[in-house]
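Can anyone check this?
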Amino acid sequence: MNEVTASSIQNQIAKGLFHPNVVLTNMTMAYYQALDAYVAKQLFPILPVQLSTAAYYVFERADLARDNVRRKPALGRVAPTVISNHLETYSVAIDQIILGIDQIAQTNIQRQPVPGASDPRKAKTRTIAEQMNIHQDIVFANGFFKAGAWTDEWTGGAAYTPDSHAFIKFSDANCDPIKLFDDLRTRMKKKGRRAPNKLGLGEDAFNALKENPIILDHVKYGGSTANPAIVNENVLAEMFGLQKVAVFGSTYNAAKFGAPEDMEFICDPASALLVYATDAPAVDEPSAGYMFTWDMLGDGNYMPVLQYPGENGTHSEFIEGLMGVSTKKTADDLGIFLKGCV
């Protein structure tokens, strides 16, 4: 075996054969969130639009739901029925993020066999995608999942008084969530002509439902030693008569740059949102809300990631992320927001 000396290392460097093991090649630490944890697409359908601002028709529920059929008079006819409509508008603004790469500084990494997130271009591209997903969830939360967003808003407390929009907190042993959601289903169906089909739960609200004694009592005989009964999203959907229950557990750092880290849930963990929403854009039925998306570059992508060089002499390049998405509450009577669930 040849002796390793300063001279032999210099010779290997000159021949391009020496790769100092200064960085691990099979492991990095990157706190990217799992893609299925993001919440923005879990309740409302994505609606691609051709223009950043335009309008859509709303046919009046009162006219559609009224019995407009009349007895025909002899030798005559009834007056024509009017089904009214009006226009609502949407608007999509463009958000942007840019990250820079120092081409000189990255030379060291290029000369080492370091894959994955340690490669500046790959890492920053992945980071751009992460940032845009976080921002999209924040846009969702600000538009749909907060107090004041929906007219039919309920508050958790110690007593169930529907007339004052109050319910017993999920964390209270006296809370009967099944009755609550049965009552809310009937309420929405009567007013909005659609029964709710989806429920979004904050993290703490979901955890409280899993420990609720009435919920547990309904599932305790459904398991065995090998397969114990558990309360998950599918079980809750079955109990509440819903198509889908989603848990909104996406997180972010709420602190400004330079301030101490402040990790929070993007969606209020103590709230819940019950809605009727279509799975895809529809022209013949309502939906509580939509996520309007605009492909600002005309390539069908509303969240494109692009790369371009910096000015001459700077030896830099930049990676840019664009996002064209806007929330729109399109049927207020098809959403019920519950705050203070725990």
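Reply from J.R.: I decoded it. The CA atoms of residues 252 and 258 lie 15 Å apart.
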